[in-house]
Amino acid sequence: MSEQEKQPDIIIIGGGPAGLSAAQYAARAGLSAHVFEEMAPGGQVLVVDELENYPGFEEPISGFDLADKFTKQAERFGAVIHFGTVDAVNHNGDGSFTVVTTDGTYTVPVVIMSTGAKRRELGVPGEKEYQGKGVSYCATCDGPFFKGKRILVVGGGDSACGESLFLSKLSSDIVIVHRKDRFRAQRSIAGMVEHDEHIDTRFLHTVNEIKGDGKRVTSVSLHDIEHDRDYEEPFDAVFVFIGADPRTKLVSYAETDEAGYLVTNGLMGTNVPGLYAVGDVRNTPFRQIVTAASDGAIAAHASAEYIDELKGQAYV
Ligand code: NDP
Fold it and tell me: What spacing in Å lies between the alpha carbon of 119 and ligand 1's midpoint?
């Protein structure tokens, strides 16, 4: 077998639901699909305690279990999952891509970006100092350490609301602060937070500073926007869920929107032929596991047609 024949058809960067779904559909269509994931396959889903809205599961399923099912299903159809980092995606003059990874260099006709987004930090004094000492970005990972303690949650989206509901099972003393006068989260989740007797919802509030005794968080200085006043309250933990920034650096030559997300068409294609984007990294109006999985299926289908077209051209 020549070196050329050993090259995969598709490299998928990122092993969350979008990437694993793309891998499953591509492999099932007979393409050689290789996924690169630098952490464990599953991506952000891994830290979700209970998913109750993924279709087909009558009872809630943990993010970990769902990620495991995505992974095993993709592998069953022949997708190859690498534990490794992608360092560069060079777009070559002949339209192919050379993908430089910690597990080899590959030249492929199609790359699917499923790199997701990196969580944001508040950027206030004390945040970095107390990371791992009370400041957290993952309720499932760190929530159990603060059972029965006083917890502050920051943010107003689905993550902040969903994770507050998880934390409210561990503590009856949760405060959630959001800078706007209403949640951005889906109405169903936002309503549950506002009616949860363990959660004190404070709109029009921001965090000034996270304070501690050097070893752990002890209090937080808050700003009440409506009354333009600062005040300090004791807290044992601060959970920050204020969104994420798309990871697009590897393909800085592809078009992004004003918020930095990769712009895609209905087939998940970017403005660069052969380069597709799926899941949280693309400019989608609704970021859910189910929409990410759908993106992956569409991109794999479109990639297969694109590769067929290339093969057809080669024989003309
Ligand atoms: P979002 O971007 O949806 O929300 C971020 C929230 O943080 C917003 O309310 C925003 O405020 C606030 N915020 C941003 N920056 C700051 C800051 N510097 N200081 C204070 N507050 C800030 O992020 P999420 O992580 O909640 O969700 C990401 C995506 O994942 C969304 O599309 C969401 O729908 C999806 N998701 C779906 C889930 C599900 O279906 N179960 C679960 C979790 C996430 P403002 O409103 O003012 O912009």
Answer: 10
CA distances from 197 to 78, 164, 168 (A): 49, 12, 9
Mean pLDDT for the chain? 95
Annotation says 141 is catalytic? yes
Going by C-alpha positions, the residue among 276, 280, 260 that lies closest to residue 268 is 276
Q: Using DSSP bridges, classify how beta strands 174-178 and 199-203 pair: parallel, antiparallel or unpaired.
A: parallel
In angstroms and rounded to an integer, the radius of gyration of the C-alpha atoms of the chain is: 22
E strand or H helix at 67, and its extent? helix 63-76
**Alpha-carbon torsion, ordered 160, 161, 166, 171, to 10 deg:** 90
**Burial status of residue 233 (CB atoms within 10 A of its CB: 0-12, 13-18, 19 or more):** exposed
Task: Give the angle 125-242-200 at the CA atoms, nearest 5°.
Answer: 90
| Residue 161 bears catalytic tag | no
Q: Whose CA is nearest to atom 15 of ligand 1?
A: 242
Residue nearest to atom 18 of ligand 1 (CA): 122
Structure-token match 């409506």, residue found: 226
- Ligand 1 — pocket residues by CB below 6 A? 53, 120, 122, 154-160, 162, 179-180, 184, 241-244, 287-288
pTM here? Answer: 0.80
Q: How far is CA 208 from CA 21, 49, 79, 176, in A?
A: 41, 29, 47, 15
SS3 assignment, position 109:
coil
Between CA 239 and CA 142 the distance in angstroms is: 9
**Ligand 1 atom closest to Cα of 120?**
15
Which residue did the predictor score with more confidence, 211 or 312?
211
CA of 66 to the centre of ligand 1 (A): 22
Is residue 1 over pLDDT 90?
no
